[in-house]
Amino acid sequence: MSHQLAIEHDVIGVGFGPSNLALAIALNECAKRSRLKCTPLFVEKQPHFTWHGGMLLPGSDMQISFLKDLVSLRDPTSPFTFVNYLHKRGRLLDFINCRTFYPSRVEFNDYLQWVASHFKSQAAYGETIVAVEPVTAGQTVTSLRVHSRSLAGGETVRLARNLVVAVGGQPYVPQVFAKATDDRRLLHSSRYLDLIERVVPRGRSVRVAVVGGGQSATEVTVDLHGRCPEAHIDLIFRGHALKPSDSSPFVNEIFNPDYTDFVYAQPAERRDAIVRNFRNTNYAVVDADLLDQLYRLLYQQRVGGDTRVMLRPRSEISNVDAGPDGIEIGVIDKFRGENRRSTYDVVVLATGYDRDTPHGFLEPIRRYIRDAALDRNYRLVTNPAFRPQIHLQGYSESSHGLSDTLLSVIAVRSQEIAESLLSTISRRELIA
């Protein structure tokens, strides 16, 4: 435990991915404009900045325009735009010649790392927040005591006047796989590149199940076949067919920042209906180009009389048993009334992320939170005697719309949160 006096920060950000990186830019801009001093710190559990490192597959492209970067929708003249990144890297003309709005995921990660390098002094890498406690004066909570643990096990305590939580989703493991969660042969797609070389050695005829019917599942299937053509791969999913994502221009308008106001203004049941209606833009769907690539792969298999990659649609997984010979998966096809059991050397879960998990580190201040729902500025509603603001980024799809977990609104959302935070700093300076 650190025994030195805890340093106080105006804002502590939990996580330093794209959302809080965009906030770092917005806080810097807003503080300069309003001539206020703001001292943020962003605590990130990874040892360095990486965005979805386990899925930075060669050849995988962004599914969102580069113009929806960290700042362009708010301020296209900012030095932190993707276009300026290309200019600084000496690749602007080359990128223009590619004639695309969709850079590779590897390049976009490099852009984010480039931006993060400008905010190195505001980041503490390799630390995990373990507890957030109230600091009181009488009946009033004046600030927060934030405990973090380093990769080496040491603890640090800092004080925060405000908190912004943006740690992303937790890899979702379906309940049917609960007994196998500690099995080294079971991995989530979020760790795919980190672990696949270990569990699927090149040149070995292994049996692999990929579970999921969306973009990640399809990307893993195509990549795995490319790196290990000898592998037998079953793509197991519940739907009748792999479906394309709807990225048509009129539908894409639901990701516009002003659509957030429309969704938030609706009563709860209408918000639910809107989210359900547009799920095919983001969930259990696949980019059309990737679908074509997979279909051609399967067709060439038929030409050669090969069945190494198999689609297993309409497959409801009923039971999972991990044994010495592999992980056995039992599936039911309810439409045909058929049961099938297969044993695999490796299982990759491309089952998405859970964003409903309550943050355990907030437990010590839970009693001050009035409602789990957020206000329009992504702030938790707290008791009047609780002065710190706590904002959440990426946890309000049900109240703010489908764009909440995506890059589409982070340029605008970060400014809304920054202005909300800076207003408390200006009020404090007026009182002082």
TrEMBL record:
Co-factor(s): FAD
Keywords for the protein's UniProt record, in alphabetical order: FAD, Flavoprotein, NADP, Oxidoreductase
Name of the protein in question: L-ornithine N5-oxygenase
Protein family membership: Belongs to the lysine N(6)-hydroxylase/L-ornithine N(5)-oxygenase family.
InterPro entries listed in its UniProt record: FAD/NAD-bd_sf, Lys/Orn_oxygenase
A GO term for molecular function: oxidoreductase activity
Entry keyword annotation includes Calcium: no
Pathway: Siderophore biosynthesis
